[in-house]
């Protein structure tokens, strides 16, 4: 087997492992339950402070 085929196989295996790890992480995050949005009044306060600091 020449060197190019070995590199291609190793790269393919690494790509498949990364894809499987990604799917596992997504499933773990998704299984945490329903996402609750941030309270609106605290969010608007944070935006006001950031816009004041950037001005």
Can you walk me through this structure?
The protein is built from two helices and no strands. By secondary structure, the chain is mainly alpha-helical. The protein has one domain (3-54). The longest helix is centred in the first third of the chain and has 28 residues, at 3-30. The protein is elongated and about 65 Å long.
**The number of domains:** 1
Distance between the termini: 63 Å
Number of strands: 0
Helix-strand topology string: HH
Reported for the largest beta sheet, the result is: none
Total number of helical segments? 2
Shape by Cα distribution: elongated
**Average pLDDT reading:** 84
Q: What is the multimeric organization of the chains shown? A: single chain
Helix content: over 70%
Rg from Cα: 22 Å
Structural class category: mainly alpha
What percentage of the residues does DSSP assign to strands (E)? under 5%
Low-confidence stretches: none
Fold blueprint:
Elements: H1 3-30, H2 40-54
Q: What key attributes describe this structure?
A:
mainly alpha; 78% helix; 2 helices; 55 residues
Short description:
Helices cover 78% and strands 0% of the residues. The chain is mainly alpha-helical and 55 residues long.
């Amino acid at each position: 087997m020449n060197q190019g085929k070995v590199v291609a196989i190793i790269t393919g295996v690494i790509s498949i492992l990364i894809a499987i790890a990604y799917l596992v992480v997504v499933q773990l995050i998704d299984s945490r339950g329903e996402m609750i949005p941030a309270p609106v009044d605290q969010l608007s306060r944070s935006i006001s402070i950031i816009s004041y600091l950037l001005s």
